[in-house]
Amino acid sequence: MDKLQTAATVLIVPGLREHVAEHWQTLLEARLSKVRSVPPLETDKLDCAARVRAIQHELEQIDGPVILVAHSAGVLMVAHWAATHSHPIKGALLAAPPDLAAQWPQNYPSPQTLRTHGWDPLPKGALPFRSIVAASTDDHLASFDAAKRLALDWEAELINLGDVGHLNPASGYGPWPQAEALILDLDR
């Protein structure tokens, strides 16, 4: 299998999930030639500040420009990171951002739990690098309108993915070929 060549190093920023072999980010990581991934936290898994420190730690290991590829809560981690840190970021693909004001299913953290752990309020204002928000029209963690508001707040491009749920294996998605094209667009 040929590896996808990029000039920038891609840093994968997963959401709150543990490692999932069939997830599009895991599959994408295997296809890239220059890639790192933010590892899952072992303790205090909902601590937003610890997640931001983990992103910063990985970035400190990379020389040169970076493209961030975040999914779900990883998108929120990137917003928090960008509000307090800097690094030569070439661009960011921000897929399926959750809505902190939405009512999520029972197996997800409550809005109060997320607030307690530093996720809310979410930083607003333009992200300091080119960003693409890719959102679904039937995501159970965020309406398309909520994702559109985030894209406007961050001055990011918005891509309507259609009915892809939360763009994860539970929604029937493993590989996401469009991600590669979006990364190459950010890398130009």
From TrEMBL:
Pfam families named in the record = Ser_hydrolase
InterPro entries per record:
AB_hydrolase_fold, RBBP9/YdeN
Q: Does the keyword Acyltransferase apply?
A: no
Q: Does the keyword Hydrolase apply?
A: yes
The family database entries (Gene3D superfamilies) matched by this protein are listed as: alpha/beta hydrolase
**Could you tell me which SUPFAM superfamilies the record lists for this protein?**
alpha/beta-Hydrolases
What molecular function does GO assign, one term? hydrolase activity
Q: Which UniProt keywords apply?
A: Hydrolase
Which top-rank group of organisms is this from?
A: Bacteria
- Name of the protein in question: Serine hydrolase family protein
Origin organism is: Pseudomonas izuensis
